[in-house]
Amino acid sequence: MKTTDAITSLGALAQDSRLGIFRLLVRHAPKGLPAGLIARRLRLPGPTLSFHLNVLAAAELIRPEKNGRSISYSANLDAVNDLASFLMENCCGGRSDCSRSR
Fold first, then answer.
1. What are the C-alpha distances in Å from 51 to residues 1, 44, 86, 102?
2. For residue 2, how many other CB atoms are within 10 A of its CB?
3. 64 near 55, Cβ under 8 Å?
């Protein structure tokens, strides 16, 4: 993962509503949820939800899927795993065990 991609992903998640949306979609992975259900669960107005979903989709953290007249969204778990790997790639000086020594 490129540093610029990591910054984009972290920036997209660095907002309360977007982090809540993303965490909700992770809980419902891999199937995802329709936009209307996300709005009801998080008590977000449609235009606000749409804005946040667009930011997360642009960062490739979620994927939209059209289902007739509605759109469902799912977490892009590959992107999340790539981000976690990027953040941890130099962890603990390259040791395989990063647990704290006591």
1. 25, 11, 27, 46
2. 8
3. no
Query: Within 10 A of 14 (CB to CB), how many other CB atoms are there?
Result: 9
Classify burial at 75, counting beta carbons within 10 Å of its beta carbon; exposed 0-12, middle 13-18, buried 19 or more.
buried
Share of the chain above pLDDT 90, in %: 79
> What is the pTM for the complete model shown?
0.86
Place of tokens 């969204």: 73
Which residue segments constitute the domains of the chain, with CATH numbers given?
A: 3-87 (1.10.10.10)
User: Within 10 Å of residue 7's Cβ, how many Cβ atoms?
Assistant: 11
